[in-house]
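Handout, page 2. Input:
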Amino acid sequence: MTPERDPARAERGPAGATATTRPRFRLDQPRPPRRRFLPEWDPEAFGRLSERIARFLGTGRFIVWMTIVIIVWVLWNIFAPRDLRFDNYPFIFLTLMLSLQASYAAPLILLAQNRQDDRDRVNLEQDRKQNERSIADTEYLTREIAALRIGLGEVATRDWIRSELQDMVKELEAVRDGHVVFPAERSRGRDVDDR
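Output:
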């Protein structure tokens, strides 16, 4: 028994666990941007701005400008005409402004330090990998030098060749003078001292 196809069901699409109610999007094309109700901000731009502010807060220029502003503030509110003063003697508004500046400066400095820590962590990781490569290269070169030394230990040295040639010259002179030298009398091969 083969189930017969229902033409109406084929037009509706798949049913059951494989059925999807969401529209399908093409994967080779970008999706349209979503509408957002909140403004978007770039965290990297904000981080860069916080680093610039933190760098400025850590300079002598900031301390000089802050000192000038506080002195002008205090002098204005002491010596200006009474109706032009905006912060009288206990300088409560000045205290509020300084605490507001400090409350913003501390998180900005922390954010800049966190970004610097992240950069330092990446640099340390790269340095560690570079050190590992350098150690591996050094070990490889050490093994190669050791192999060359072992290979050079078996190569005839200049002194050994010179002594062998001198022995052969002595043998030839002995043969020419009539003295016969047997090969057993002459040492063949290299001695440890000849190396």
